[in-house]
Design a protein that fits this description.
The structure is a single chain. The chain is an alpha/beta fold. It has a single domain, classed as 2-enoyl-CoA Hydratase, Chain A, domain 1 (Alpha-Beta Complex), CATH 3.90.226. The chain is 48% helix and 13% strand. β2 and β3 form a beta hairpin. α1 packs parallel to α3 and α8 runs antiparallel to α9.
Length: 351
């Protein structure tokens, strides 16, 4: 194996594979700007190298693949520099997401352990997405006043039975079996098969064939049991309709889901529903990412993001004071302003 290791990501070549291994275990491999830049540089080099038949994306050690993005940097930026550093991070992160989505040869993401937020953003664009019994997948941004970005509009809107809307609003966690059933993942592997799969892909075997041969049947997915209720209650793109539908259902699942939704940022929930709706009209992934960059540029400096991070991560009182505080207070004009085009010089563009 050849390559280089910096503090936070290992960039390597082994046989026929380019290998990106996240290496920030104390932060569950949460993405920093240098990590994003290192992966982007490697992918650009490998994109034009025919000897790289596949890219393996995994984590070096620890209990999760990737817990998200650099929330601390984003909050500091929102509070201290008007969002300038945060916008730069989003700009580069979204370029990495797009590069993975459009990479000309198979990218294989091993979503072993915690895979959330920014981790979803680098795993979901991969052509092949492996989950395990340890996988815990979520897009929890509504709880911190952000929104399900990094391509969430594209990926979640295309899931069946309004599951994407449910995940975007609630931040619900899925296990590996759920992910495979919903189409979020392509293969479910046992723990002992994961190193075998990586070794065989690096040796030059076709990734699809390797994963097909090593895949095993997961346990019954719990998500399938509540999918009909999700499809019914999350059918509308209006947050008020979703809340009213859940309020009319006395089942334990509906009561718990409604209680969870009432803790989320009303602004973020409305943004997410609009985001997933509009993404279906995007002609390609680049158009979706340009839309999400517009949203991120605005949401970053609105009150809910800094407040949500304060409540959940900084002070940990889990008592955010959302502004606006109610769904009714989030006006159509506010949402329209969040989605409005940026000046041409500030718009996102792919590499």
């Amino acid at each position: 194996m050849t390559g280089e290791t910096n503090a936070d990501v290992r960039v390597m070549r082994e046989g026929a594979a380019g290998w990106l291994s996240l290496n920030r275990p104390k932060a569950i491999h949460a993405l920093t700007l240098p990590m994003v830049e290192a992966m982007t540089a490697a992918l650009l080099q490998w994109r034009d190298d025919a000897a790289v038949a596949a890219v393996i994306l995994d984590h070096a050690e620890g209990r999760g693949f990737c817990a998200g993005g650099d929330i601390a940097l984003l909050r500091r930026s929102a509070l201290e520099d008007g969002g300038a550093a945060g916008r730069h991070f989003f700009f580069e992160e979204y370029r990495l997401n797009h590069l993975l989505f459009t990479f000309p040869r198979p990218v294989v993401a091993f979503m072993d352990g915690i895979t959330m937020g920014g981790g979803v953003g680098i795993a979901q664009p991969a052509r092949l997405r492996v989950v395990t019994a340890q996988t815990r997948y979520a897009m929890p941004e509504t709880g911190i006043g952000l929104f399900p970005d990094v391509g969430g509009g594209w990926h979640l809107s295309r899931l069946p039975q309004r599951i994407g809307q449910y995940l975007a609003l609630t931040g619900a966690r899925l296990d590996g079996a759920d992910c495979l059933w919903a189409g979020i993942a392509t293969h479910y592997l046992g723990a002992e098969a994961v190193p075998q799969a990586k070794a065989r892909i690096a040796a030059g075997e076709a990734p699809d064939a390797v994963l097909d041969a090593l895949a095993e049947a997961p346990p019954p997915p719990r998500l399938a049991q509540v999918a009909p209720a999700i499809e019914r209650h999350f059918a509308s793109d209006r947050l008020e309709d979703v809340l009213a539908s859940l309020a009319g259902d006395e089942s334990e699942w509906a009561v718990q889901t409604l209680a969870s939704l009432r803790t989320k940022s009303p602004q973020t929930c409305k943004v997410a529903l609009r985001q997933l709706h509009d993404s279906l009209a995007c002609p390609d992934f680049a158009a979706n990412m340009a839309m999400e960059y517009r949203i991120a540029s605005r949401v970053l400096t609105l009150p809910d993001f800094a407040e949500g991070v304060r409540a959940v991560i900084v002070d940990k009182d889990n008592a955010p004071r959302w502004n606006p505080a109610t769904p009714e207070g989030v006006t159509d004009a506010l949402i329209d302003s969040i989605f409005a085009p940026l000046p041409a010089a500030e718009e996102w563009r792919p590499l």
